Amino acid sequence: MQKKVVILGGGESGAGAAILAKSKGFDVFLSDKGLLHQKYVDVLIRENISFEQSQHSEAIILESDLVVKSPGIPDTVPLIVALKEKGVEVISEIEFAARYTNARLIAITGSNGKTTTTLLTYHLLKNAGLNVGLAGNIGESFALQVAEKDFDFYVLEISSFQLDNIVDFHPNISIILNITPDHLDRYGYDFQNYIDSKFNIIRNQTEDDYLIYFTDSEVLTLELDKRKPAVKNLGISLEEVLSTGSYLLDQNLVSHINGQTFEQNFSQLPIMGPHNAINALAAISVAQLLGINQDKIAEGLKSFTNAPHRLEEVEIIDGVTYVNDSKATNVDSVFYALGSFNQPVVLIAGGVDKGNDYSQIEELVRNKVKGLIVLSKSFEKLKDYFSEVVPQIYTTQDIQDAVNKGKEWSDPGDIVLLSPACASFDLFRNYEDRGDKFKAAVRNLISQ
C-alpha cells in the first residue's frame, strides 16, 4: 500500500517537499492554513498533487504515515501534538530532503551571519568549479533540488526552527557562528532550549566530520565542553592566533587547515565589519577542508557580492552615508553593525521586540550614536532604555519621516544606519520590505 505523506505549509519548502515526495512514489497531500501563493498553486496543479488552503483537514492529516512540516509551525500547536501522540513521525523539509541525497552537506547555523556565510561559502565552492547547490533557509527548496538536480555538494543555511525536527540529518561539515538570545518566544523564554536547538546541527556528526565554530563565544565553548561531541572541531577567532583553524590578525584573515596556510587582507574584500571577518573565516575554512587552492579562494573572496539588507551602503548624500542593515533583527546584529563604523552614527531602530536585552549594545550606543530614531508602533522600551544614553531620541511610525530626521541630525562624514534589533512586522511585511522602503526613502532625499 502506498505510504501517505502530508506536507504542512505550502511555501517554498513545502512545495518542494511535495514534489520530492511524489517523485519517490508517496501518496501526497499538502495542507496550508493560510492562502497559498499563486506560483505554488500552479506548481501543485501541474504536478497533480492534492492540496488544500485556508484550512487543515485534521481527519485527513491524522491518517498520514509521515508529516513534513513548515519550520514556521511550532511543535506546540494542537495538530502537531495530536500527530505525535498518534505516533506519526513529524520532520522538517531538510530532514526529508537529506534522506534522498548522497551529496556532501555543509550546514551553517547561528543567530547572526548565516546568510552571508552561506552565500560566501557557496560562492567560493562554485567559483572553484565544484558541482554545488545552495538551499535551506535561502533560495530554492532543498527538497526540490534533490528531486530535480544532481549536486555533489549542498551549502545549507539552517535555522533553529528547521533543526527542531531533524532525526538523521547529518552534515559532513557544520558551522555554528554564534548563539545569542533570539526567538525566545518560540523556546519558552529559556535560552538553553534555543541553544539545544542550534546544537542539533552536530547531533549525528561523527569523528569523520567537522564542526567549525567561533571560539570567542563563551556560549559555544561552554556548550562544547559540556557535550564533548565526537566531531572534529575547527576554531575561528578574532582574538587569538590558532595553530589549527582560522583567525584575524592585523587585518589579515589567516587560516591553517589541512597543512595549508591561507592569508588575505580583509580590507581588500567587498564586505566589512568584525562579523563579516568571522563569516569569511568560516567560508575559507570550508574551502580549505575541501582542498580548494589558494588562488581560487582569494579570487572568490574578492568577487563576492553580499545579499541586500546586510550593511548595504545605499547612497552618500551631502557627505552622509546611508546604510541599510534591515536584516539586523536582533541585538547581537546591531552590536556587530555599530562595531563596523568609526564615524558618528544616527541609528534607526525598532519594530517587534522579541525579548531583547539592550545592555549588550549600551556602551557602543553611548560612544557612537549621536541620535536614536525609533521606528515602531511600540517605542517605549527602546526610548526608556536609551533615554539617558543618547543625546536625542525621536519616535515615528513613518520611514520617510525617520530618514528625514536622520538627515537633519547628521553632518558630513556621519552614518545614518537602519539596524533595527527587532522584527519588522509591526509596520512592514518583512525585513526585505523594511529595507526596500528605507532605500526608497533615502533616494527621495536626492530629489528634495
Automatic annotation (TrEMBL):
<comment type="function">
    <text>Cell wall formation. Catalyzes the addition of glutamate to the nucleotide precursor UDP-N-acetylmuramoyl-L-alanine (UMA).</text>
</comment>
<comment type="similarity">
    <text>Belongs to the MurCDEF family.</text>
</comment>
<keyword id="KW-0133">Cell shape</keyword>
<feature type="domain" description="Mur ligase C-terminal">
    <location>
        <begin position="309"/>
        <end position="422"/>
    </location>
</feature>
<dbReference type="InterPro" id="IPR036615">
    <property type="entry name" value="Mur_ligase_C_dom_sf"/>
</dbReference>
<dbReference type="InterPro" id="IPR013221">
    <property type="entry name" value="Mur_ligase_cen"/>
</dbReference>
<keyword id="KW-0963">Cytoplasm</keyword>
<keyword id="KW-0067">ATP-binding</keyword>
<keyword id="KW-0131">Cell cycle</keyword>
<keyword id="KW-0132">Cell division</keyword>
<keyword id="KW-0961">Cell wall biogenesis/degradation</keyword>
<comment type="pathway">
    <text>Cell wall biogenesis; peptidoglycan biosynthesis.</text>
</comment>
<keyword id="KW-0573">Peptidoglycan synthesis</keyword>
<feature type="binding site">
    <location>
        <begin position="110"/>
        <end position="116"/>
    </location>
    <ligand>
        <name>ATP</name>
    </ligand>
</feature>
<keyword id="KW-0547">Nucleotide-binding</keyword>
<dbReference type="Pfam" id="PF02875">
    <property type="entry name" value="Mur_ligase_C"/>
</dbReference>
<dbReference type="InterPro" id="IPR005762">
    <property type="entry name" value="MurD"/>
</dbReference>
<dbReference type="GO" id="GO:0008764">
    <property type="term" value="F:UDP-N-acetylmuramoylalanine-D-glutamate ligase activity"/>
</dbReference>
<dbReference type="InterPro" id="IPR004101">
    <property type="entry name" value="Mur_ligase_C"/>
</dbReference>
<keyword id="KW-0436">Ligase</keyword>
<feature type="domain" description="Mur ligase central">
    <location>
        <begin position="108"/>
        <end position="287"/>
    </location>
</feature>
<protein>
    <recommendedName>
        <fullName>UDP-N-acetylmuramoylalanine--D-glutamate ligase</fullName>
        <ecNumber>6.3.2.9</ecNumber>
    </recommendedName>
</protein>
<dbReference type="Pfam" id="PF21799">
    <property type="entry name" value="MurD-like_N"/>
</dbReference>
<dbReference type="InterPro" id="IPR036565">
    <property type="entry name" value="Mur-like_cat_sf"/>
</dbReference>
<dbReference type="Pfam" id="PF08245">
    <property type="entry name" value="Mur_ligase_M"/>
</dbReference>
